[in-house]
Amino acid sequence: MNCTKVSYTDSEALSMAAADYITESALESVRQRGRFTLVLSGGNTPKHVYRRLASPPYSETMPWESTHLFWSDERCVPPESPESNFGMAREILLRHEPAPPGNIHRIPAETGAPHAARLYEDEIRRFFLSGGEGKDWLPVFDCVILGIGADGHIASLFPGSWTLRTRERPVLPATAPEGISPRDRVTMTLPVINRARRVLFLVSGSEKKDVIRTLVHPSRPAANLPAAMVTPVGDCRLYLDFEV
Ligand code: 6PG
């Protein structure tokens, strides 16, 4: 994994560093390209970060009017469900109305994975073509936030899944392994994640130590872990709240 690893003392310190990084990335992106495209992740770890972004000083420093929010993946549940990644961000961040509604590009996963994947891909394509970033259909996001599961999954890209093999499609329907609920998902894919200008991994909790050790120690066979396949052209950070 070619990311800069930083260990923080606890999840508070981690979330503050992440909010700083996101805010600086946003200001730089708006200065350079007039907008900031941020991909949010689900899971528990980013919740603290979203909470910070929703309150001062971050809420006042973030260029919300020029920030466009996307999601790395979604579970096929209605947005009102406690399992919805969009629902989580809405509750913690969006209900404070930081970004205009037109800047929020959620995955309509309640319509079923295959259909929602097509709709979301169309939404991304429309957005990037209208933004003047060329005709290339694979988008370049300014910052992608990702968690890492104890099994090495990222977004809804699970170890051994066929979705890891695509080189062309930015979004795919996905299925979580048995035991991980809900199983029906929609996910962004590796070619999109790897084209991002910045990838920020947020990892909290000692149950993740093993998988992080495998990822950061080159002698370990990590190649089949989805997180190990993230090799972005841009800046990559791995923020932990433990030492490995
Ligand atoms: C999801 C996520 C998923 C998550 C990891 C880590 O929808 O479940 O996007 O990939 O980021 O499972 O989650 P935690 O932060 O809760 O450990």
State the gist of this model:
The protein has 244 residues and is α/β, with parallel strands linked by helices. The protein is built from 7 helices and 9 strands; from the N terminus they run βαβααββααβββαβαβ. The strands form 2 sheets. The protein has a 6-stranded parallel beta sheet, covered by helices on one side. A 3-stranded antiparallel beta sheet has the order 4-7-6.
Key features?
7 helices, binds 6-phosphogluconic acid, six-stranded parallel sheet, single chain, 244 residues, three-stranded antiparallel sheet, alpha/beta
Radius of gyration: 17 Å
Mean pLDDT: 94
Say which molecules are bound, naming each kind only once.
6-phosphogluconic acid
Sum up the overall morphology in one term. Answer: globular
Can you tell me the residue ranges where pLDDT is under 50 for at least 5 consecutive residues? none
Distance between the termini: 14 Å
Describe it for me?
With 244 residues, this protein is α/β, with parallel strands linked by helices. It has helices at 11-33, 45-53, 58-61, 85-92, 113-130, 190-193, 209-216, and strands spanning 4-7, 36-40, 67-71, 73-75, 143-146, 171-175, 184-188, 198-203, 235-240. The strands form two sheets. A six-stranded parallel β-sheet has the order 1-9-8-5-2-3, with helices on one face. Strand 6 (171-175) and strand 7 (184-188) form a beta hairpin. Helix 1 packs across helix 2 (45-53). The radius of gyration is 17 Å and the shape is globular. Bound molecules: 6-phosphogluconic acid (6PG).
